[in-house]
Amino acid sequence: MDVERPLNGLTLGPVHLTVADLERQVHFYETVIGLRLRDRAEDTAFLGAGGPDLLILSERAAAPRPRRTTGLYHFAILVPDRQTLARTLLHLDQIGTPLHGFADHDVSEAIYLPDAEGNGIEIYCDRPRSAWQYPGGRLKMGTASLDVEGLLRLAGERPVAWDGLPERTTIGHIHLHVADLPATEAFYREVLGFEVTARMPGAIFLAVDGYHHHLGANIWNGPGAPPPPPEAPGLRWFTLRLADAAALAEVHTRLDAAGVPLAAQDGGWLARDPAGNGLLLTAA
Fold first, then answer.
1. Which helix (H) or strand (E) holds 250?
2. Are strands 108-114 and 101-104 parallel, antiparallel or unpaired?
3. What average pLDDT does range 116-128 have in this prediction?
């Protein structure tokens, strides 16, 4: 299916999570991750880093998310530079935060950890695009050991008291558990207009504007994995912020033509991908 591509200029907006204990999660994201509470409305909290909302947390009494379902693998917080990543790593080390791992992805350097309810978080910085490599015309994006000691040394060169994540922090990408990779690729590439940037066993990565990836999807919870119950903690939706109203209208037309149900939500349109993951489409 050939499509026009209205996704140039796309950015990711806030990630919306359902949580079982709002107070505990707000405390975690403020004290551990370094976000700031921007607003509070009944059972929902809005957090950012001095700019727009990056994370929305809504409380709902629920059983734990079942294993082997679709949903969030991790959401990725993009910090503006390596010095910030180094200071963040030092802060996490000093307060004894359990971490899931570290990785050098050639295009970026990353720290992985769970939140207070087990949702996956990546905190990363990009290398300059001029340093990205394209052997055989394909972007090189691997997984190697992160220079943890080098980052800690960098943080110690100019010690600064931890005061949270800086204002230029954004949501860099989202990584999802899905049920079927071909169906996921068809939805995000053929209907929405993303481009495939990399593949690995059981996973695919997609982006626009030449980025390494705005979206990852994997079947590591098993092919055909079911969606979690609607009340389960985890991802409610992530936000794709299109460049303008015209781009949003075009994507709405495409989704409608593909038979994807759409619901008006927060000034945009809420859709679900073939695995049931929610995505909110808005205009900048």
1. helix 245-257
2. antiparallel
3. 97
